[in-house]
Each structure stands twice: as structure tokens, then as C-alpha cells.
Amino acid sequence: MSAKRYDALIAGAGPAGCAVALALQRLGVETLLADRPLAQPFRIGESATPDVAGLLQRLDMRIDFAGHSPYHGNLALWGSDQPQLDHFLFRGRGHGWHLDRSAFDRMLQQEAMARGVAFLGQSGVDGVAPDEGGWKVQVRGIGEVRARVLVDAGGRRSPLAARLGVARHRLDRLQALACHVETAGDLSGYSLVESSPHGWWYATALPDGRALLALMTDQDLAREQRLDHAGNFLAAWRATRLLAERLPPPLQASSLHAFAAHSGCVARAAGPNWICVGDALMGLDPLTSSGISGALSDALAAAPAIVGMLNGNLNAARHYAQRADDSFRRYLAERRQHYGLETRWTELPFWQRRCPPPLGGSRHAAPRAYQGRLA
């Protein structure tokens, strides 16, 4: 039997992968969406900024946000002894949403299937080899398929790009130590950020009445300070000001989960008959709160590049690579600026690694990650 043929195979069915599938479906591209099982069901990306609704509308999705709760802005204790409120209303943007993330992802997957996208859950890519006009792909659960274009939407590991020998730049060792808290405290409608000597804290209310709490710190610092131990984690939590007031620490912490949260990017955004989107393209510091909106934006930009590949025209892919390069360099400048606002712990390792270098320094120079071309 000959292998099933698709125009595009997308590895990863999170927001980036589903959005690419939906955008390609509108353009008449036959697509297979393959999703690998989650290593753990705990999810860290729980918020959608106000621009997400508009990006979904560009995919012809009319979203019912029932089961999710409004997200009005951010409350921060950063670089000052006084909390600062960034209300989305002040920007004329409306509100975003605190998500039931699993339900949100399922909604996108179901929408893709309803529109005729072939979806294979609990699967993954086990092997890739060049084929005339595309690729031979070993897909867990169905065997060999042929695809003309591969789309890596597999997250920070960039699994397809790695199989193709594409390097990934890693700028830091940031990780999230996260847990659920049974009460949301005084967080309703807002996300909270508070800087601390060894990193920064993030907390947000979830639609089910609980809260998500995460300490963002570097892996080596977490080991040295033993912050992944419940007692030390709770002690650091109690030492906060705004967080401890808005979300009082319990007597015992629930299980901690560690997640990669480092900044990084693939060495090339795309190549002959392959392309990266979402976190597989570039992983940004969670401080940006741009994970979902960035994934959807990447998908909308990637769709015409993929169609161009199918038609033998690489100009759109070159534009996509240049867009990625510009976005990552802009992100690095904004990251440097935001971390530089916090000057209370500049002698400590976490902040030394992120504070702007002296004038003329190059410690945070952008890697040559994207060249605006395919070769």
C-alpha cells in the first residue's frame, strides 16, 4: 500500500499547530495535525492577552469564552516599593482571559477537525527522511506518511528541526517552579508579578477558583538555594510583600512542577519544505505574557509561506524568516530594558545575568538566529 500523502504535516497541536492547520485549511491545503502525549497534565500557560480574540477572528473563529474568566491586567511590584497596576482598559484594548488551558486547546483541536483537518492525538513523529518533492515521515499510530512540507509546532524542543540537524540557541537557564493553590486569594481578574532576589514570582487566578503560582529562577540557582524543596519554596513565598498579601502561603505547598522557561530560538526559521512556528521558532521569557498571541501570530504569518513552498516560491518563506529575525531582536531589546528596571539586587547572580551591560558592551547581543533567508 502506498503511504498517505498530505500537503503539510504539523507536529504539535497546541495553539500554534492548530492555528497553522486552520489557516492552511482556509487556503485549501490538505493537512495532518499530529499531537504527542503531554509529559504531564499540569499546564503553565494560563492567560490570553486581549489581542488573542482578534487573532482568532482572523482564523474565522467566533469563540465562546464561557468557562474562562476575564483578565483585566497586571499588578506588579518591580523596580519600586510601590505596586503598579497595568490595566488593559488604559490601553484601549478591552480585557483578555484567564483560561482553562486544557479546554482552550481542545476547542482549537475540535475546530480544526470540524473543518476537515486530519487530526491524530496521542501521537508523534518517530522519523523523518527526505523524499522526492517532500518528506517520508514515520507517524506513531499510522505508520509512514508523505508530506510535502513539515511544520514544527512542537514547543521549545523544536523536535522536527532537531531531527533535521537545525541548532537551537539558548540564552539563559530560566525555569518555572510552579504549583496550584486551592484558593485564588485576592487575585480575581489580574495577574501578579513580583521581583525577588533570586528571580520573580507570577500568580494568577484560574477559572476553577484555584490559583497558579510560579517562581521564575535559573536552574542552577534553584539547585543552590534548594528552592524546589517545599519548605524553602514556602519560605521564599512568605518573604514576598505583595504576593504574600494577595495570595497568603498555606502551611504546606502542593507538589512543585518544573518547566523550562528559557529564552531561545532555532538557528533558522525555515528551510526547504520545512518551517517552525510558536515556541519551536522562539521561546520567550514568560514575563512577556505573549505565548498564545505569539503562537497565533506566527501561524497566520506561516500559512502564506507554506503555500509559497508548495508552489515552488520561496519569497514568502524568506519574508517569514526576516519577520522572525526582527521579532526576536525586538524582544531581546525589550527584555533587556524590562529587567534593567529592577535595580535592588544587581549584585546577585540572577539580576547580574540580565541587567544591561555597560555602554558599548555586548553581553546580550542577539544570536544570528535568523538571516532573513532560507539557506
UniProtKB/TrEMBL annotation:
Coiled coil: none annotated. The keyword Calcium does not apply. GO terms for molecular function: monooxygenase activity. Keywords: Monooxygenase, Oxidoreductase. The keyword Manganese does not apply. PANTHER family: FAD-BINDING PROTEIN, SLR1998 PROTEIN. This is FAD-binding monooxygenase. The lineage of its organism: Bacteria, Pseudomonadati, Pseudomonadota, Betaproteobacteria, Neisseriales.
